Amino acid sequence: MDVELIEIQEFLASHPPFDQLPEETLARLPRRLSVRYFRRGTPFPPEATDSPCLYILRRGAVELRNPRGELVGKLAEGDLCEQHCRTAEDEPRFQGNTAEDTLVYALPCADLSELRAAHPAFAEHFEQSTSRRLRKALDVVTDSPSSGTGLMTVRVRDMVQRAPISTGPETSIRDAARIMSEHHVSSLLIMDGEHLAGMITDRDLRNRCVAAGLATDQPVRAIMTEKLTTVDMDTLGFQALITMTRLNIHHLPVVESGRVVGLISSTDFTRFQSANSIYLVGDIHRADSIETLAQIGGKIAELQVHLILGGATATQVGQAISAITDAITLRLIELAEADLGAPPVPYAWLLGGSQARREQSAHSDQDNALLISDEAKPEDDAYFAALARFVNDGLNACGFVYCPGEVMASNPKWRQTLRIWNKYFSNWILKPEPMALMLSNVFFDMRSLRDPNGLCEELHERIIEKSRANRIFIAYMAANALKNRPPLGFFRNIVLIQGGDHDHTFDIKHRGLIPIIDLARVYALSAGIMENNTNERLQTAAERGALSRDGAANLIDALELIATLRMRHQAQQLRNGEKPDNFLAPDALSPLERGHLKEAFVLINTMQESLGQRYQTGRFA
């Protein structure tokens, strides 16, 4: 074979989907290609001829635009343009221009059809949308022999053992206890017809009846818990467990189409204990010192490794670790109050950053603050300063290191009354200077962990409405969201760090995850969305029309893929006894993973440019 043909074969073999073809097929393929050259500014793809073709970019760059002239994609080395080979029912067609002199290989559509018919793995690339390809890539990344048997895949319907045991609200406490004893259950649902009125447990019988001296002939409604959290039959077991650990409860009623169909308890999860490190939460609630909590915190890295090896995605790992951190933080607050006494006025402990979004990894610092009632007097700050110092020191001892920017409750600036917090947010919205935008990225993600008086909810609703109404602020936030770009060069090569400790790597957090998180935040603020989790923000933005449904789905899949690759990278470092970081070497990925990662980066870049055009962010840079 000619040297030129060998070079073409090697080029094809290194790019999806041609890497799915057998070697003998690849060896014959170069002879079926023609080489075409387009000068810069040439319309692309060229007008269809009698022999329409698939175009494979060998060198150069192409910009594709929709009928409105908006940039929707870029093509560079290794990319395909199969527009002329699609049927009328396929994805929409685009027209663009070569951004520089461009060399392509052209494969007749008839030959492409033969290859697709003969090689299903090759054909899948052309049969799937961007979202489906990213989803398949994620499935490959998380594929594990153990993943099919654990809480990551089992659904609540598979855990419900029998029909619910129930009684009415007027049943006596004595008869309710007898029913529980006869059926050997530790809880009893209280049904008012078809309506779930409440539930009692063994603990309720002890604490609310026997210990309180309540007569057992009283109706069971006197001791039942009325406000119940329920779970749907199709909920993943892991998500149900996260709900139970986050709320520190041991029973969850199960519903289907609004009808109660069963009950799951902590005992049921023991049978599916593939992710048993999550039971650290139970130990946390019993911990009586920072030293004990620090020992538990030292197991969080092991939890991340365990979950990743079990086939968990980044969303599942983030929920698990955030639930652990929430539990540790709450226990530290309880220990602080036990030592300092009751707080002089109501307050809320605020979370920021990845913990607030429930997207933490084992490699996270702490972002938090204190929101104090306006009833506070100057002398009350000594109490809250001591509480904040206790909790921040405790979190650091548990492995959640101090925030480098000192965004912590122990910093007096972030330990303020509701009136001052309202003033902070108003100033950030009205005067979006660089520091204000940076702080907005932290505090517009906030959620409260301990807030019995609803102070945070009052603040959150007010600032979301203010930000939504201020389009200049949204435009500045949009411009700020475009500063972290995916690490792609003009030829779609991944741009790597050169020299230093992270030579030939890229920062997958700041160049991959943060751009999507920032985009979701802008969509949320522009639509007045209260959610702070990135996936939930994107889904709600699509429901409210702030973002297309396809755009939201693609960004969610891109986020999951990039975040899971990051989690897997950190898990491998932890297994090797190394300190986890965010610097990933492309050589550590398979060619297919690198291809899908580039596709995710291209998607992010396209969505960023679309946002920039919407808000004309060049005026605010």
TrEMBL record:
SUPFAM superfamilies: cAMP-binding domain-like, CBS-domain pair
GO molecular function, one term: kinase activity
Keyword line: CBS domain, Kinase, Transferase
Segments forming domain CBS: 159-216, 224-280
Domain (Cyclic nucleotide-binding): residue spans on this chain: 17-93
Gene3D superfamilies per UniProt: CBS-domain, Jelly Rolls
Superkingdom of the source species: Bacteria
Identification of the protein by name: Histidine kinase
Species this protein is from: Allochromatium tepidum
